[in-house]
Specification:
The chain is α/β, with parallel strands linked by helices and 398 residues long. The chain folds into two domains: 2-157 and 330-370, Response regulator (Rossmann fold); 165-329 and 376-384 and 388-393, Rossmann fold. The chain has 13 helices and 13 strands. It binds beta-D-galactopyranose. Beta-D-galactopyranose (GAL) binds at residues 72, 74, 148-149, 193, 197, 199, 253, 283, 308-309, 329.
Length: 398
């Protein structure tokens, strides 16, 4: 057994090292199982599992991964990393997508449980609705790792692997401050993620922490949220207050919603809310559609718009000057951290964590990863030199 565990750890360490130089791998189908893996000596097919059910029998799936949707490139990036790391480390694994449905998510979890998983890595579609799914997993003796998005209101979350989401919001807000036009009364359009995603609250909280003083002193004027304008003197907002603002400016993480909201907002405002404007774009998909709308309004003379995820299409937008910045969240690190956790769990060890996140039921031990702000100035260094993407995937880089 010792030998087995050692080789498993070595394999993961090697993969982690290799990943530092790994590009954006091609994605495979959503139901890919790595059960054809040849590294028999690293499968937790018997005593290597921490669970008392004897672990996954040969041919069963050891690590199940559930991601929110294939419709956002962000999650395909994560899928590619998982399949590369887990496959290379010799773990049988399966990635399933919830496609925006909590019901599908629950079915996916049940499917994975029936396939004998020991560890579930799940990025929730809806952070509170996912509680039922992970409770089913826990009841089946599975260790649950919340991936990127915290699952709330349940004790059935063992660990949380995340980027520093507050910093994402701070970076977006600070970018707008640092790149704002001169003067006061500058129109600021706020957009947020889905109200069902705990991260949307954290991102907004981070952005508000830096933007609020500028709104309070009149440097910026919120153009599209009466709730935000009404709360402008409050440095710290309660979750309920953030919820009210998000209720007005949510994109649902959906670029069609983002597009129609942006159109409606520009139609509703007067000329004083146009000219040189600032836009808090919550992520890349929505930032691109908001940018496209603002770019076609003849009364908007210039705009700065933020994003997040370093999606390929947005990296091209940044290079072309159509999106001002993105926040690079290196999915290689997040996936590798989750796999390292899975390895510890399968070995019966306690995974390393560096912080906790309260999910309204408990303090969940968490591993947090830093983010990198990407603009035209450092796009090559951050994304090409780090081999996250290949230069050939973009035009106009030189
Ligand atoms: C968040 C995630 C972001 C973004 C967004 C939309 O939870 O942290 O990276 O992609 O969801 O899917």
């Amino acid at each position: 057994m010792k030998k087995k565990l050692l080789s498993m750890l070595l394999a993961v360490a090697m993969v982690a090292t290799m990943l530092t130089g790994c590009g954006d791998t091609t994605t495979t189908t959503d139901d890919t199982t790595a059960d054809d893996t040849t590294a028999d000596d690293v499968t937790a097919d018997d005593d290597a599992t921490a669970d008392d059910d004897g672990g996954a029998a040969s041919g069963e799936v050891q690590v199940g991964i559930v991601l929110p949707t294939k419709d956002e490139p962000r999650w395909l990036q994560d899928q590619a990393q998982f399949e590369a790391i887990l496959g290379d480390a010799g773990f049988t694994n399966q990635v399933l997508f919830s496609q925006g449905s909590s019901a599908t998510e629950k079915t996916n979890v049940e499917t994975l449980i029936s396939q004998g998983i020991d560890v579930l890595i799940i990025c929730a579609q809806d952070g509170s609705a996912a509680a039922a799914a992970v409770e089913a997993a826990k009841d089946a003796g599975v260790t649950v790792i919340a991936y990127d998005r915290l699952i709330t209101g349940t004790e059935a979350v063992d660990y949380y692997v995340t980027f520093d989401s507050f910093s994402v919001g701070v970076a977006q807000g600070q970018y707008l401050i640092d790149n704002a036009p001169e003067g006061t009364g500058i129109p600021l359009y706020l957009y947020a993620g889905a109200a069902t995603d705990n991260n949307a609250f954290i991102f907004f909280e981070g952005a508000w922490s830096v933007l609020q003083p500028k709104i309070a002193d009149g440097t910026f004027v919120v153009a599209n949220s009466s709730e935000a304008e009404g709360l402008k003197d409050k440095a710290e907002l309660s979750r309920e207050e953030i919820g009210k603002i998000i209720g007005q400016v949510t994109t649902d993480w959906d670029f069609n919603v983002a597009k129609s909201k942006a159109e409606a907002h520009l139609t509703a405002v007067g000329a004083d809310m146009k000219g040189d404007v600032l836009v808090l774009g919550p992520n890349d998909g929505t930032a691109r559609s908001i940018a496209d709308v603002f770019a076609t309004d003849k009364d908007v003379t210039s705009f700065k718009v933020t994003g997040q995820d370093a999606e390929k299409a947005s990296v091209q937008y940044v290079i072309d000057g159509k999106q001002s910045m993105t926040v690079f969240k290196d999915t290689r690190t997040l996936a590798a951290d989750s796999v390292a956790m899975a390895v510890s769990i399968l070995n019966g060890d306690t995974p390393a964590t560096d912080t906790t996140y309260n999910n309204e039921a408990k303090d969940v031990p968490a591993k947090q990863t830093n983010i990198v702000v990407v603009t035209q100035d450092n796009v090559k260094e951050a994304l090409i030199d780090s081999e996250y993407y290949d230069a050939s995937e973009f035009t106009g880089l030189e």
